[in-house]
Amino acid sequence: MTIRAVLFDLDGTLADTAPDLAGALNALLAERRRPPVPVAAARPATSSGARGMLRIGFGIDADHRDYEALKARFLELYEARVCAETRLFAGIAELLATLEARALPWGVVTNKAERFTRPLLAALALLDRAACVVGGDTAARAKPHPDSLLHAARGIGLAPGRCLYVGDDLRDVQAARAAGMPVLAAAYGYLGVDGDPHAWGADGVIDHPLEVLKHLGSPL
Fold this sequence. Notes:
alpha/beta; globular; two-stranded antiparallel sheet; 2 domains
């Protein structure tokens, strides 16, 4: 089945958000008189959002008694700098322009809440260009469940099998498989801790965003 639209994960696939997430974490660490975390150390946990950042910075998980308070403060700090240093990955601007030139709609499906996703995309001058924007709190369940991908496909009026999803985390592949959607793993992204995109069972692994174009001419 020929691809008619492309959907992207946000953090680690469309944009390099690690500098701003790490910046919010380091601001929180400074408030607690703790040493900062290098962006390189925080990068693998970036796709896990606040949970991943707090694990890297404080060594705690959601069952810790301080987790909710730290999470709330972290999100406040991140919201204040949601696009201070975030940039599109090299090749993404050209890829999106090419998709638009070919009249192929593209959209964003992320686990990041809409309160951060939409302002971030607006700051990157992408919000009005996206055919759909689905956050982690848009559908009933976030990835690895298929709900958000199915919601996106309905929103652009296409069968899931006609939409290609591109993501940099195992749960992106799991969600796409559950949705009946072809999927590419972005090896240039964050990948999670010790993530191996070649082991996720994606339809293909790409090392650069423009490689998406090679997968559009024929069924995956």
